[in-house]
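INTERNAL TRANSFER SHEET
From: sequence group
To: structure group
Subject: Lipoprotein

Please process the attached sequence and return the structure record in the designated field. Keep the field labels unchanged so the import script can parse them.
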Amino acid sequence: MTVMARKLMIATSLAGFLLTGCTTAPPDEQISVADSSEALGYEKPDWQTPFWERNRTPEASEAAPAPQATPPTDGTLRANIGIVIGDDVTPALETALRNKATGYGFIPVPTSALRDAAARLPECSDLSSLACARALAVYPGVRLMMVVKNRELTLIDPSAGVTYPPTDLPSDNPADAALKLAAERSTLSPWVLRAFPGDDGQLYISAGTSNGVTRGTELTVHEPGSLVRASSGQPVAWRPGKTIGKARVVDLVGPNLAVVVSESGASLTPDMDLLIAR
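Return from structure group:
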């Protein structure tokens, strides 16, 4: 027998032995061996956790820097949300609320801008009042006010004119629970914007590039809308007032500010409802 033939015979016998060993093992053991990360010397994969969250502690995730808001490119509108946190709430929860707000369709108003505006408004002696929320709806243009104290969430909607009963937040993912509820509540009415005069004589709205507003964005002008409640008193709908004109964005001053002009109808005043026409 030649050397080549001997090598071929040995290889054939070895393959048969290995094949027999695999096929005679119980099916469950075959699957276990095939899928065993230990057998291959690999780290066990974590398919349920996104790769960007692996090897991060919950504290690191909560305290991550807030991502920069970028202008929406899909035609969506992101509304401003005011976040007020009590002294008894951990800084990590406030950070998480601001980090995650954009994912739920909101742009968080910077704390300094919110408190500076509130300090100049007599209606805001109580930051959790509907009167304060309505005043802040003009500038810095809050769509909703979110007040968190003792893990208790209160949502105030100045567009619809509603203060919702307080809701207890879960200990697990309280930021997501709060923002999810805020997004659900915001469907009761559209974002009602208010025009206000600047000291340069122009009219402004508190919405800009970060909200998805562009030059040429059209707005419909309405008389004040009305809230519809069920017989139990629960808010069930909001109806816009009569359309009395049209307006248009002519300039973008910043990420959350734009110049508007009246195109038809009555001259704009802060008590008129402006709805983005899209």
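Handover comment: The longest helix spans residues 3-24. The first strand starts at residue 79 and ends at 85.
Transfer complete.
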